[in-house]
Design a protein that fits this description.
There is one protein chain. The chain has a single domain, classed as 3-Layer(aba) Sandwich (Rossmann fold). It has seven helices and five strands. The protein has a five-stranded mixed sheet, with helices on both faces. Helix 3 links the parallel strand 2 and strand 3. The chain starts with a strand and ends with a helix. The relative contact order is 0.23.
Length: 188
Protein backbone atom coordinates (compact mmCIF):
# COMPACT_ATOMS: atom_id res chain seq x y z
CA UNK A 1 0.00 0.00 0.00
CA UNK A 2 1.28 3.44 -0.91
CA UNK A 3 0.50 6.59 1.05
CA UNK A 4 0.98 10.30 0.49
CA UNK A 5 2.54 12.44 3.17
CA UNK A 6 2.70 16.25 3.42
CA UNK A 7 4.60 18.45 5.83
CA UNK A 8 2.50 21.22 7.41
CA UNK A 9 2.71 24.84 6.25
CA UNK A 10 5.11 27.46 7.59
CA UNK A 11 4.80 28.72 11.20
CA UNK A 12 6.28 31.68 13.06
CA UNK A 13 8.91 29.45 14.74
CA UNK A 14 9.83 28.03 11.33
CA UNK A 15 10.32 31.57 10.04
CA UNK A 16 12.66 32.26 12.99
CA UNK A 17 14.63 29.06 12.23
CA UNK A 18 13.58 27.57 15.57
CA UNK A 19 12.65 23.98 16.37
CA UNK A 20 8.89 23.47 16.83
CA UNK A 21 8.90 20.09 18.53
CA UNK A 22 5.84 19.95 20.75
CA UNK A 23 5.21 23.72 20.64
CA UNK A 24 1.61 23.86 19.40
CA UNK A 25 1.30 26.90 17.16
CA UNK A 26 -0.87 27.92 14.21
CA UNK A 27 0.22 28.44 10.64
CA UNK A 28 1.76 31.80 9.83
CA UNK A 29 -0.08 33.84 7.15
CA UNK A 30 2.60 32.69 4.67
CA UNK A 31 1.92 29.09 5.69
CA UNK A 32 -1.79 29.47 4.95
CA UNK A 33 -0.89 30.90 1.54
CA UNK A 34 1.48 27.94 0.89
CA UNK A 35 -1.26 25.42 1.64
CA UNK A 36 -3.81 27.20 -0.56
CA UNK A 37 -1.28 27.25 -3.41
CA UNK A 38 -0.67 23.51 -2.95
CA UNK A 39 -4.37 22.66 -3.34
CA UNK A 40 -4.11 22.25 -7.10
CA UNK A 41 -1.23 19.78 -6.76
CA UNK A 42 -2.98 17.33 -4.44
CA UNK A 43 -3.35 13.85 -5.89
CA UNK A 44 -6.79 12.69 -7.00
CA UNK A 45 -8.46 9.74 -5.30
CA UNK A 46 -7.62 10.56 -1.70
CA UNK A 47 -10.39 9.29 0.54
CA UNK A 48 -8.82 9.53 3.99
CA UNK A 49 -6.77 12.23 5.71
CA UNK A 50 -4.85 11.52 8.89
CA UNK A 51 -3.25 14.43 10.67
CA UNK A 52 -1.10 15.17 13.63
CA UNK A 53 -3.24 16.76 16.36
CA UNK A 54 -0.90 19.76 16.43
CA UNK A 55 -2.57 22.98 15.30
CA UNK A 56 -0.21 23.63 12.35
CA UNK A 57 -0.94 20.18 10.90
CA UNK A 58 -4.70 20.31 11.58
CA UNK A 59 -4.99 23.69 9.87
CA UNK A 60 -3.05 22.34 6.89
CA UNK A 61 -5.38 19.33 6.70
CA UNK A 62 -8.50 21.49 6.91
CA UNK A 63 -7.35 23.79 4.11
CA UNK A 64 -6.40 20.86 1.87
CA UNK A 65 -9.69 19.18 2.65
CA UNK A 66 -11.59 22.17 1.22
CA UNK A 67 -10.75 20.54 -2.14
CA UNK A 68 -10.50 16.87 -1.19
CA UNK A 69 -13.78 16.66 0.79
CA UNK A 70 -13.04 13.57 2.86
CA UNK A 71 -12.92 12.61 6.51
CA UNK A 72 -10.07 13.87 8.70
CA UNK A 73 -8.80 11.83 11.63
CA UNK A 74 -6.41 13.34 14.15
CA UNK A 75 -3.96 10.77 15.54
CA UNK A 76 -1.36 11.23 18.27
CA UNK A 77 1.17 8.95 16.58
CA UNK A 78 1.75 11.62 13.90
CA UNK A 79 2.77 14.28 16.44
CA UNK A 80 6.18 15.84 15.88
CA UNK A 81 9.16 14.51 17.80
CA UNK A 82 9.01 15.73 21.39
CA UNK A 83 12.11 17.83 22.00
CA UNK A 84 11.47 18.66 25.66
CA UNK A 85 13.29 21.78 26.85
CA UNK A 86 14.84 22.22 23.39
CA UNK A 87 11.47 22.99 21.77
CA UNK A 88 11.14 26.60 20.65
CA UNK A 89 14.90 27.17 20.46
CA UNK A 90 17.21 27.54 17.49
CA UNK A 91 19.88 24.87 17.06
CA UNK A 92 22.42 27.67 17.57
CA UNK A 93 20.93 28.42 21.03
CA UNK A 94 21.43 24.86 22.23
CA UNK A 95 24.51 23.47 23.90
CA UNK A 96 26.08 21.18 21.29
CA UNK A 97 23.38 22.34 18.84
CA UNK A 98 25.36 21.43 15.72
CA UNK A 99 25.77 17.84 16.91
CA UNK A 100 22.12 17.64 18.02
CA UNK A 101 20.94 18.91 14.61
CA UNK A 102 23.06 16.28 12.83
CA UNK A 103 21.67 13.51 15.05
CA UNK A 104 18.14 14.86 14.52
CA UNK A 105 18.52 14.82 10.74
CA UNK A 106 19.96 11.32 10.74
CA UNK A 107 17.16 10.25 13.13
CA UNK A 108 19.69 9.02 15.70
CA UNK A 109 18.53 11.26 18.52
CA UNK A 110 17.58 10.77 22.13
CA UNK A 111 16.03 13.86 23.68
CA UNK A 112 15.03 12.11 26.92
CA UNK A 113 17.70 14.00 28.84
CA UNK A 114 15.85 17.18 27.81
CA UNK A 115 12.40 15.79 28.66
CA UNK A 116 11.71 14.67 25.08
CA UNK A 117 11.74 11.32 23.34
CA UNK A 118 14.12 9.09 21.42
CA UNK A 119 14.11 8.10 17.76
CA UNK A 120 13.16 4.59 18.87
CA UNK A 121 10.12 5.95 20.77
CA UNK A 122 8.97 7.85 17.69
CA UNK A 123 9.49 4.86 15.37
CA UNK A 124 7.42 2.63 17.68
CA UNK A 125 4.43 4.98 17.74
CA UNK A 126 4.65 5.66 14.00
CA UNK A 127 4.88 1.97 13.06
CA UNK A 128 1.84 1.16 15.23
CA UNK A 129 -0.14 3.75 13.23
CA UNK A 130 1.16 2.48 9.87
CA UNK A 131 0.13 -1.08 10.71
CA UNK A 132 -3.39 0.11 11.54
CA UNK A 133 -3.91 2.05 8.34
CA UNK A 134 -2.33 -0.68 6.23
CA UNK A 135 -5.20 -2.95 7.29
CA UNK A 136 -7.86 -0.29 6.60
CA UNK A 137 -7.07 1.30 3.23
CA UNK A 138 -6.17 0.63 -0.39
CA UNK A 139 -3.31 2.15 -2.38
CA UNK A 140 -3.04 5.91 -2.75
CA UNK A 141 -6.22 6.69 -0.82
CA UNK A 142 -4.49 8.03 2.26
CA UNK A 143 -2.98 11.45 2.85
CA UNK A 144 -1.01 12.08 6.03
CA UNK A 145 -0.37 15.61 7.27
CA UNK A 146 2.54 15.62 9.66
CA UNK A 147 5.96 17.08 10.48
CA UNK A 148 9.50 17.00 9.14
CA UNK A 149 10.74 14.62 11.82
CA UNK A 150 8.05 12.06 11.02
CA UNK A 151 8.83 12.30 7.30
CA UNK A 152 12.52 11.71 8.07
CA UNK A 153 11.64 8.55 9.99
CA UNK A 154 9.35 7.31 7.20
CA UNK A 155 12.22 7.81 4.76
CA UNK A 156 14.58 5.89 7.01
CA UNK A 157 12.10 3.04 7.40
CA UNK A 158 11.56 2.74 3.63
CA UNK A 159 15.05 3.39 2.30
CA UNK A 160 17.26 2.26 5.19
CA UNK A 161 19.07 5.61 5.24
CA UNK A 162 18.14 9.00 6.63
CA UNK A 163 16.96 11.96 4.58
CA UNK A 164 19.31 14.72 5.71
CA UNK A 165 18.18 17.38 3.21
CA UNK A 166 15.74 20.10 4.21
CA UNK A 167 12.10 19.04 4.06
CA UNK A 168 10.15 21.90 2.55
CA UNK A 169 6.80 22.94 3.97
CA UNK A 170 3.90 21.48 1.99
CA UNK A 171 6.24 19.09 0.19
CA UNK A 172 4.50 15.92 -1.00
CA UNK A 173 6.16 12.54 -0.33
CA UNK A 174 5.07 9.05 -1.36
CA UNK A 175 5.86 6.03 0.79
CA UNK A 176 5.27 2.32 0.21
CA UNK A 177 4.09 0.47 3.31
CA UNK A 178 4.89 -2.85 1.60
CA UNK A 179 8.55 -1.78 1.81
CA UNK A 180 8.38 -0.07 5.20
CA UNK A 181 6.53 -2.60 7.36
CA UNK A 182 8.78 -5.64 6.68
CA UNK A 183 11.80 -3.54 7.77
CA UNK A 184 10.34 -2.28 11.02
CA UNK A 185 11.30 -5.14 13.33
CA UNK A 186 15.01 -4.53 12.80
CA UNK A 187 14.59 -0.79 13.51
CA UNK A 188 12.51 -1.04 16.67
Amino acid sequence: MKIYCVRHGLTELNKQKKVNGEVDEPLAPEGIKQVKTALSGMPAGIKHIYTSPMQRARETAEILNSKLKCSISSVDELTEIRMGTLAGKAWTEMKEGTDLKRKHRTVQFDYRSHGGESAKDVRKRLVAFLKRINKKHNDYETLIITHGGIIRILHLLEHGKPLVDDIEHISLHTFDLDKILPNTNSML
